[in-house]
Amino acid sequence: MTDRASATSLWRNRNYRIFLVIQTLSALGDSFSFVAIPLLVLHSTGSVVQMGLVTGLTGVASIVTGLFAGVIADRFDRRRLLMLADVARCLLYALIPLVWLFATPMWLIYTVVPLTGGFAMLFQVTYVTVVPAIVEPDQIIKANAHLYGTYAVATVGGPTLAGLVAAAFGPVAAIGIDAATFAVSAAGLLLVTLRPTPRPTEEKGADQERGTGRGTERAGVRGEFLAGFRFLWAHPVLRPLTVLLSLFIFLTHGMTDVIIFRVKEDLGHGDGTVGYVLSAGTIGTFIASFLVARLRKGIGFGPSWVGAVTLAGIAVACLGLTGSVPVIGALSATMLMATGVAGICSMSLRQEVTPGHLLGRVTAAFWTTHYSLGPLGAAAVTAAAAGFGVARVCLAVGVGVVCVALSGTLTGIVRAKEFQAPRAPAAAATPESATETA
Predict the structure, then answer these.
(1) What interhelical angle do 238-252 and 301-319 show, nearest 10?
(2) What Rg do the C-alpha atoms of the chain give, in angstroms?
(3) Which residues have C-beta within 8 Å of that of residue 120, sequence separation ≥ 6?
(4) Full-model pTM
(5) pLDDT at 298
(6) 325 pLDDT higher than 70
(7) What CA–CA distance (Å, rounded) separates 128 from 22?
(8) Whole-number Å distance between alpha carbons of 202 and 199
(9) C-beta atoms surrounding 213 within 10 Å
(10) Cα separations in angstroms, 74 against 77, 89, 141
(11) What is the mean pLDDT of residues 209-225?
(12) Taken in order 180, 186, 189, 195, is the CA torsion positive or negative?
């Protein structure tokens, strides 16, 4: 199928069109809460420590939920799970403006916001699993590019709108709008139909026998969660990709903080300039959404991923060598473009090669593994920037990222041919069978 024919049939897919619209709306709502929650905490307490505490609790809730979100996504109806996550976040966020009409209890924020973080993680894991059930296998990369592009639009426009609403009516009003977007998203999912995911015969038998204590999955949630790790480790491309991405995120997770520090402290500019630089960086996400399908089709997964990560490393290395704000914005856009291409390629490949019945667990295992080093990396990079200067740290991080990219040339990432997960349930029964197909 040609690119033009593939794109045409994708836009003719009613389920995909609806899903794209409601995901854009949901991302816009997330952007509202991203701004409104910290503002509400600051207005209520005046404490940056309490702002950090709410953020930290939400992060912990997300990580804990991620441990079993994949198991849930693979066990239950995925569309209903998406709707459940949207409805739960709608009701939880709606509690805040409702209660704030009568009182301002901070305990409600400490309770509601982490809970919504848990449901957000459940939604994100399940969301990855439903894309292959909406579009055809050869359309996954294009669909992910569109979804990534619309998410970028939401992350640019959402905070701006949230700030205007919060300034005019208060942050509580912005949170109420967020709740409404989740309600609309849940209603829209009623109009989306997913293709059924075939399951191996032995897994169906295990489900039937689970109530009597027999079956092949006696280990319960722990065993099912580990099935995702076993698949990642057995796969010749996902295994090195997971390791290299873990190192990449360790090195780059704190780069936004480093850019802010560079613009404000080193160069002496104000908050407005920081906002312009970060907004300019999001231009890279739009470019990535347009380029990624053509790159993947033209040169394949391996060269696309290695080339994108290499470019990201070069951009990071150059960030500390310039004192020009426009150049920093351009380098930030280049970095986000490169990481966007690498990220879309990575997620699409995982959706293509993983059997449908395992996709939730594999996604949860993948994210849990390579994001676990992110907080440590952010702390180390920002501490190094404060101690040794931004220029040296950016150069060191950039060189490290390039080394990570070039290491991929020694693995199955570039040697593997393009492939997809087997469609037949029998062939998708074990990680080993998928590996042989690959």
Answers:
(1) 10
(2) 22
(3) 30, 62, 85, 89
(4) 0.68
(5) 84
(6) yes
(7) 15
(8) 8
(9) 7
(10) 8, 21, 22
(11) 50
(12) positive
Burial (CB count within 10 angstroms: exposed 0-12, middle 13-18, buried 19+), residue 147: buried
| pLDDT of res. 213 | 40
Percent of the chain at pLDDT exceeding 90: 11
Q: Cα separation of 175 and 252, whole Å?
A: 30
Please name the residues in contact with 211: beta carbons below 8 A apart, sequence gap of 6 or more.
Answer: none
How far is residue 230's CA from residue 423's CA, in Å, rounded to a whole number? 20
For 398, the token pair is: 């950039």
How far is the C-alpha of 270 from the C-alpha of 259, rounded, in Å? Answer: 13
Residue bearing the bigger pLDDT, 322 or 432: 322
Write the pLDDT tens digit of every residue in 131-179.
888 888 778 888 888 887 777 777 666 666 766 777 778 788 888 888 8
344: amino acid identity, one letter: I
| C-alpha distance from residue 226 to each of 68, 268, 362 (Å) | 10, 49, 9
Direct distance between the N- and C-terminal alpha carbons of the chain, in angstroms, rounded to an integer: 22
Amino acid at 399: V
Do the beta carbons of residue 130 and residue 82 sit within 8 Å?
A: yes
